[in-house]
Design a protein that fits this description.
single chain, alpha/beta, Peroxisomal Thiolase, Chain A, domain 1, 2 domains, 4-stranded mixed beta sheet, 34% helix, acyltransferase, transferase, 3-oxoacyl-[acyl-carrier-protein] synthase activity, ACP_syn_III_N, Thiolase-like
Length: 345
Amino acid sequence: MTAAVVVGVGASLPQRVVTNAELAGYLDTSDEWIRSRTGIGARRWVDPGVSTGDLATRAGELALRSAGVGRVDAVVVATTTPDRLCPATAPEVATRLGLTGISAHDVNAVCTGFLYGLSSAVGLIAAGNAESVLMIGAETFSTIIDPKDRGTAVIFADGAGALVLRAGAPDEPGAVGPLVLGSDGGLADLIQIPAGGSRQRSSGAAAEPEDYYFRMRGREVYRHAVERMASSAMQALGRAGLTMSDIDKFVPHQANARISAAVGERLGLQERQTVSNVECVGNTAAASIGILLAEATAAGGIRAGQRLLLTAFGGGLTWGATTLVWPEVTAHIAAPPRAAIAAAS
């Protein structure tokens, strides 16, 4: 059976570093409050005029460079913040990468978007519709959060992470294992933007300005996130014929530090097994796992030959998980220098 094999990884983060101190200057919050509840010390927000497509294009370019290829057969962009409601962002990203004419489409599963996008890429390869796919998770959440909402403004951030996948064998390093995906639309209102879609527009009712911003019912989301991330991770292990003792590194969606810790504890993992960058990057939604893979690879936190467990949870509600043995790959990253981040913090 044909598998989708990871052969390249890249990430792009905005240059602007937004510290907790900056947010505390106009929100009823503090560095201690933010860190104690989220584990976040700083995040990246785009400068005016920079779009999701800009970050996606840069991350895709770097992933292609990492893979040592100039062309793929398809581009998938997972995002909650497309450049426009219509058309999709992926075709323009493909053209900007010199890939006009290939298959290109968007996926929206909010924070589970990277795994849903990965599933789409795996499916294209398994069906024989593509020999290689560039899969990008990209977000500019700073454009949809209410700057006055302490519950979301301190958490969400911008960035893009990308993988290049090619057709290969299931036993190769980098081969993506069975993917477990799920959803529950009955809880769609826990994570939403109320206005701007066809439901609000067709109602004829005028929307309030704040209805165009992202909303999240944090306490309820926390409970569902921990349960769904842990259960889907166990299902993914079972489908791959693995147990938790086979896992070297746990790579969760960077929702916040408390959720990652709670899921890791429920799975019986040691703290040292969990990979994290939420303190310096924040929650970049569909981009978070891709950025984390790139940064951890570059920093040596993930090494070739290690078996990874990936899991995520997002609006929809949606959730998912998968496993893979990390390949020998060099990560390429465009991001603010760490020295600048430390100085800003």
